[in-house]
Write a structure and sequence with these properties.
Structural class: alpha/beta
CATH class of the largest domain: Alpha Beta
Number of helices: 6
Distance between the termini: 68 Å
Helix content: 25-40%
Strand content: 15-25%
CATH topology of the largest domain: Glutaredoxin
Order of helices and strands: HHEEEEHEHEHEEH
Length: 195
């Protein structure tokens, strides 16, 4: 009788955990309705679920930690898919004055260097899709933007303040992590190191 109770308790616990995981979004395979509703094909949801970062780190020379972008059309891309191209991750938020100040420089850099293979990924810090979409439209951002609503990618990259920018070379290795506002000359200098 005791083992029967244990079995039922275990089954109930498993069922409860399954429901909790599904409620938390582990079962989802498409971008949220809010992201789709923005109409911006370059706005994606970010997740670190199911990504193995055991051999990755944040120090210069280490492979950059990986994460997945889920775009409104259902396509998924991992950061590591861009290995072979220089990548810039720019963590920002709509309320961040320095983020607003430096964003035109990132937009201009994207326009100048995208044909050379440079990938800029904006990582929005825990805001809604509609908040991010308004910012993206104001600055004419056409590069991919990861909506990090739960802060998983920020935590993965140990982002403690905004803006924070991470420069990744063609081998997928971190070259520099820059906390704070980037001037146009500093941005150009760091881009030259990864291009």
């Amino acid at each position: 009788m005791n083992s029967s109770r244990k079995s039922r308790s275990l089954l109930a616990l498993i069922l409860l955990l399954t429901v909790a995981l599904l409620a938390a979004g582990c079962g989802g395979s498409a971008a949220s309705d809010e992201v789709v509703a923005t109409g911006l094909p370059n706005l994606a949801e970010a997740t670190t679920r199911g990504v193995n970062n055991a051999q990755r780190g944040l120090e210069p020379g280490q492979l950059a930690p990986d994460f997945t972008l889920q775009f409104p059309d259902g396509t998924k891309t991992q950061l590591s898919d861009w290995q072979g191209q220089p990548v810039v991750l720019n963590f920002w938020a709509t309320w961040c004055a320095p983020c607003r100040e430096e964003m035109p420089e990132f937009v201009a850099a994207h326009e100048r260097y995208q044909d050379d293979g440079l990938v800029i990924v904006g990582v929005n810090a825990q805001e809604t899709a509609s908040q991010a979409a308004g910012f993206m439209n104001n600055f004419n951002m056409t590069f991919p933007v990861a909506l990090d609503t739960r802060g998983d990618v920020q935590q993965l990259y140990n982002v403690r303040g905004l803006p924070t920018t991470v420069f990744i070379d063609r081998e997928g290795r971190i070259v520099e992590r820059w906390a704070g506002l980037l001037s146009a000359p500093a941005l150009e200098e760091l881009l030259a190191e990864i291009r």
